[in-house]
Amino acid sequence: MNLNALNLLNTQLEPIIRDVNRTMDMVAARHDISPVAPPDLREEAPLFNYTPDGAPVSSLLLPTDFTRGLDQPAGMLLVIVLAIAILAGAGVVTGITGLTVGCADLLGKFGIPALASAPIMMFIVSALGITAVLSAFFGKTGLLAGLWAVLLSPPFALIGAVVAFFLPSTARGGNEALSVGRDEALYRQTIDDMSSSMYLKDWRNTVRIKHKQAETAARDKTRFIALGRATGYFKDHGDPYAPESGTVFGYAVDDMSMHTAIMGMTGTGKTVLINRIAKQIFQATDSGALGLCGKGTGARELVGLDENYVLLNPETSKLALFAGMGAMDVVDALAVVDAKSDPFFTDLTRTLLKAATVLLKALADAKVEGFKFTPSHLYRLLESNGTIGGGKDRVKHGQYRQDAINAAFDMHQRMDRKSSMLLNAIDFFENAWQATQGAEKTFAAVQGTYKNWLEPLFSHESIIQWAECDEGVDVTECLQGKRIGIDVPGIVYGFPAAAIITNLVRQRVYTALKRRGNGWRNVAGQKPVLLLIDEMHLVWQAESGTGMDDNSMVSIARSLGGIFLVGTQSVNSLRARFGEDKTREALGNFRNFGCYEADMETTDYVSGRIGAINRPIDTIYDVDDEVAGINVTAALSREYMTPHNFGGRTGSDAASFAKRLIKNTPLRFAVGAQSDTAIDDVHAAKIQTLGNRALATHAVATADELNIMLSERFACVFVAQRAGCKRRDVIIVDPNDDIEEMAA
User: Fold this and answer.
1) The dihedral of CA 730, 736, 739, 740: what is its sign?
2) What are phi and psi for residue 227, nearest 5 degrees?
3) What pLDDT is recorded for position 52?
4) 618-627 contacts at long range (C-beta below 8 A, 24 or more positions apart)
5) DSSP H helical segments within 88-113, as ranges?
């Protein structure tokens, strides 16, 4: 009776193919280390990953993975090549060769060298294979089939031996496997083709991205900016983008063009990290800098970081607040809008302010006597009653405005090219504003609004000097490499005044930044500029009518040579001013961001920004209990999403294992010394055996986990764009770190 060879092979290979698919899944879950990776991107220890059923597997390709033996991935790779080749009808030679090399590897496991055993095994397997083929397809059996097998086996054995010689697991003993480009490409393609899990194919894509990251970072010649040292918490969670514990964490100067935001409560360490970044930028580049702060004091923190840094203070410096700005630039800087503002009165006041600044700037540019483009003269123009100045300089505001309107009208009449903006401004004051003044409540609301925007500049004698000044230090020189800070402490001059001055200076620099355009690198003397804004929630503008607000500028600043480095206390501090959508837009422009200890809403936002990974989820407890105010059940469940396996432990053995685990996880910061009793007395009897492990998408770190992790001193969770790819972990930013050593 003739045997059906294909049915026989299908029957025999089905369990083999299942096992091989599983092995290929495990191999596909691993990745090798890029040989060009900079020190901060190298991975020396395995990163545990999981097969689709939750079984842990080391993610690094190790030399032992390519030694002899069918139980190793390299050996199984040959078996799967054999199975696929036969089932696809690819040819007898390929099948025999693959099986022969596999058997040779098996003999090698018992000490018989693969190269010595290969010819013998080739002959034996070839003879058996040819006998099977003759029997299955041609009905040849017995002595005749044996004779044919003896005659035909030597050629097949010779071909197989030659092929086997070039197979890496046989000829190179594994340690030099994948060293030849064609072998590596074939190996990786085979893994991609054979892997049965879409998740593991995604993992391979992640590996390719990380290799590309290493190659890009190796080509980047800009200085590495050291931020702190990684804790390895995210790596413990199975995050492929996380560094190992102790690794110096940071990014390159070129990566900073994606902008950086740092959040955290007062006293948590924001300033230490901001200064650490700024100092390294100053040392590594010839870029300019502008230091600002919503409270007016942050710029002082940069003193001492660079000897060329200049601090401008109302007591010692002259600064023209409107110099170099257009009418709408001034309006955008002064019109502080937040979520609580009444849109109707805000828009009407902006219209008034626009007419006044257009009128005043036209007169000042034409050098009409008695008119300057300053906050002091703008306030005179807006007021309809009262006086300003003293003695013979005492001027009534109402008369001042009428003189301005008359002078502007005369000037407009003499213009060869009429200005519609100027004419509209004159018409507004002569008609629309007169009507508004007749509506008592509307007028009072508008007047109250512009006074809130301007009067803080007249609340202190030293600030008044800046409000009346029309010439002084040119802050836009920060675009030519100068490093300037604005020092207007709110506690001295009033916090509203500090915020308004910060807005005006920032707007002036934005105007200059936008004017220089994308071709700034080709203009002599133009430099990149570090725009440092601390307490951004007090001065940030989320929208404007001219596209000169902060949200708009940060989105285009990279092409203009602007690098933002900002600090704020929390997400809620921004939400209170702008609402949810504008807050997300504002923070979304910062691809590099860090967060120290903060409120729950902030850590919840940060958890979402960090993203999710595939983590195996285990059920460990059947009840919820709290220890030291922490839900131990939930916390431990999250911890066991990390690559720990109970390995069949039950009862007290499992309890001891869990106790040791707690002492080596972030949970120890909350439970501390109570962990022993928490496990022994409360949970020991309730620990269940594993068996329901499943791979699922889960946050890299939940808000609860982050709150625990960030309770450690100097801890900051940071997500950096490193060479075009994310890099993230909880890092320790110790003020006593030797930054020079770390950056090296």
Assistant:
1) negative
2) -105, -40
3) 57
4) 618/690, 618/692, 618/693, 619/688, 619/692, 620/658, 620/687, 620/688, 620/690, 621/683, 621/686, 621/687, 621/688, 622/686, 622/688, 623/686, 625/682, 625/683, 627/671, 627/674, 627/675, 627/678, 627/682
5) 92-109
The answer to whether residues 474 and 521 touch, using CB atoms and an 8 Å cutoff, is no
pLDDT, residue 92, reads 44
Confidence of residue 341 (pLDDT cuts 50, 70, 90): low
Amino acid at 720: A
CA–CA distance, 530 with 334 (Å, rounded to integer): 23
Distance CA 636, CA 640 (A): 6
Stretch (H or E) spanning 533: strand 529-534
Rounded to 5°, the CA angle 318-320-322 comes to 165
Q: Specify the pLDDT at position 126.
A: 55
pTM across the whole model: 0.73
Window from 135-149, 277-291, 376-390 with minimum mean pLDDT: 135-149
Would you say 687 and 623 are in contact if contact means Cβ atoms under 8 Å apart?
no
User: How big is the CA angle at 484 (ends 483 and 488), to the nearest 5 degrees?
Assistant: 160
Where in 112-199 does DSSP place strands (E)?
none
Q: What is the chain's Cα-based Rg?
A: 36
Burial of 193 (0-12, 13-18, 19+ CB in 10 A): exposed
Residue 600, Cα to own-chain centre: how many angstroms?
Answer: 20
Query: Which one has a higher pLDDT value, 696 or 269?
Result: 269
CA atoms within 13 A on the CB side of 201: 9
Cβ–Cβ < 8 Å for 157, 118: no
Backbone φ and ψ of 325, nearest 5°: -115, 150
Backbone angles phi, psi at 673, to 5 degrees: -65, -15
Q: What does residue 141 show for φ and ψ, rounded to 5 degrees?
A: -135, 175
Angle at 505 between CA 504 and CA 511, to 5 degrees: 90
Query: Is the predicted pLDDT of residue 176 greater than 50, yes or no?
Result: no
Query: First CA to last CA across the chain, in angstroms?
Result: 76
> What pLDDT sits at residue 258?
94
Non-local (6+) Cβ contacts of 36 within 8 A are 214, 215, 218
Query: Are the beta carbons of 718 and 274 closer than 8 angstroms?
Result: no
Q: Which of 249-253, 255-259, 409-413, 435-439 has the lowest mean pLDDT?
A: 435-439
**Given a cut of 70, is residue 681 above it in pLDDT?**
no
DSSP string covering 238-270: T-TTPPPTT-EEEEEGGGGGG-EEEE--TTSSH
CA distance 364 to 315: 26
Which among 116-120, 157-161, 235-239 has the top mean pLDDT? 235-239
Domain boundaries, the chain: 5-203, 321-469, 612-699
